[in-house]
Amino acid sequence: MRATPDNGLKIRAQLEREGINVPSLSERTPSANSKSDRKKVIMGAVIFVLENAADALKFVPIPNPDAIPNLLLKWLKVYDTVGGNDDGLKELGNDIRKAYATVLQPLELSEQIPPEVVRLIGGFHSDLEEQINEIELLKSQHLAKRTILAADITKRISGVRTCINNALNSVSTQATILTLLREIEASSQLTLERLPRAAAEHTYVKSKSACRPSTRVKIQKSLLNHLKEAKNRFVWLRGSPEIGKTAISRSIASTLEKEGTLAASFFWDKSRTGVGLDSLEWFPSTLARQLAIFNGDFKASLVKRLRRPDSELILNLLPEEQMKTLVIEPMNRLRGIFSASTQRFGIILDGLDECGDPDALKSLMNLVLLLDGLPSAFVILTWIRLHQTRLLTQSG
User: Fold this and answer.
1) 42 close to 25: Cβ distance less than 8 angstroms
2) For the residues 79-104, what does the mean pLDDT come to?
3) Average confidence (pLDDT) over 37-55
């Protein structure tokens, strides 16, 4: 990629719109008739752009971004002391201004800069430093100084231009890749949004507080130990109303979330009607959406499944078939990945008895038992009331 005069004109027009008067390199003014004056015009325009860039880049959220224009300023000052090829300098000036418009100025406007771009900027800085060091070495040679520098200055200009253009090509390529990745991510998100999702996570639970740190410490510690034991697939807890089951479940979910091992949570609540928390209809799709957030490999597997032609009517399937299609089937493709994990990933389910009548509860128990088809790295914690033990036996 080579710099063009057109790009320099665009930058000049942009600066002038901001009220900044930048001399044009193509202007033939009386003060630029001599070779010396022509050089001053070229140097002045480029230095002006770099000084403004150095000031603006001080506030960019990456390490020392202003070092790049400052290095280029340093190089130009060295060049100014030794003289050389003014035509080469003009071309270098065009490249510098293109670098400003393509690389440095976008940084000024960015609140978040992708790490890939940060690495590219760091490499650009390192390459420029190497060029500056070579120039300084030439400058430090006292014997026949001007002869040596005059012979090598064209090569040094070429080196800096190559450095700039390599950075421009890299940033352009990376920008294309990042744009493509964003488009893929947006497309994937649109696909996932076909699935209804209830605000069922432990963080959305209303009117039921989590345990205080000192409450039922032994119970929570025991449950966490059970969840981490490889032999346990389901951890069924029995208890009567008002003993703090939901509070304990929320605390367990919160602990797993802090550890990075909470795969999903669903807290039913019959008092919140019409939002998917008082029935089982949205349980499979919500669980699938949460697992997609938890694990990128599962997300990719689920999106592929949803894009198949036979997936258009998934939500018309019975809940059991939805669970198999949206959760078990996509996860089965990842067994090799999860089998290598030494961690256990928890799914916390609470308030099953709030999803409807006894028939609905029985159907929900069947859905929960289908989770036995997940890879062995997953463990499910759920509470059941004493009278629900019979349902569990019948479902099993």
Assistant:
1) yes
2) 71
3) 78
User: Could you say which DSSP state residue 244 is in?
Assistant: S
- Which residues fall within 8 angstroms of residue 390, CB to CB, at 6 or more apart? none
Helix or strand holding residue 214 (H, E): none
Residue 345 — φ and ψ, nearest 5°?
-115, 125
Q: Which is it for the CA torsion 268, 274, 280, 281, positive or negative?
A: negative
Token pair belonging to 364: 């929900």
Give the angle subtended at the CA of 347 by the CAs of 342 and 349, to the nearest 5°: 155
Radius of gyration for the chain, computed over Cα atoms and rounded to the nearest angstrom? 32
CATH architecture of the region 202-395: 3-Layer(aba) Sandwich (3.40)
Our measurement of the distance from residue 308's CA atom to the centroid of its chain's CA atoms, rounded to an integer in Å, reads 27
Please tell me the distance from the alpha carbon of residue 396 to that of residue 390, in angstroms, as a whole number.
Answer: 10
Produce one character per residue of 312-329: b if its CB has 16 or more CB atoms within 10 Å, e if not: eebeeeebeebbbbbbbe
Q: What phi, psi does 353 have (nearest 5°)?
A: -70, -5
Predicted confidence at residue 318, as pLDDT, reads 93
157 C-beta neighbours (distance < 10 Å), count: 23
Sorted by where each begins, the domain ranges of the chain are 5-192, 202-395
3-state secondary structure of 1: coil
pLDDT value of position 87: 65
Spatial distance between the Cα atoms of 158 and 269, rounded to a whole number of angstroms: 70
List the Cα angle 378/379/381 in 5-degree steps: 145
Q: CA-to-CA distance for 191 and 183, rounded, in angstroms?
A: 12
72-86, 96-110, 142-156, 316-330, range with the lowest pLDDT: 142-156
| pLDDT for the residue numbered 34 | 58
pLDDT in tens, 322-381: 999 999 999 998 888 887 778 899 999 988 888 778 888 889 999 999 999 999 899 999
Q: How many CB atoms lie within 10 A of CB 142?
A: 7
pLDDT above 70 (res 213): no
DSSP one-letter string for 369-393: HHGGGS-TTEEEEEEE-GGGHHHHH
pLDDT for the residue 380:
92
Q: Residue 155 above 60 pLDDT?
A: yes
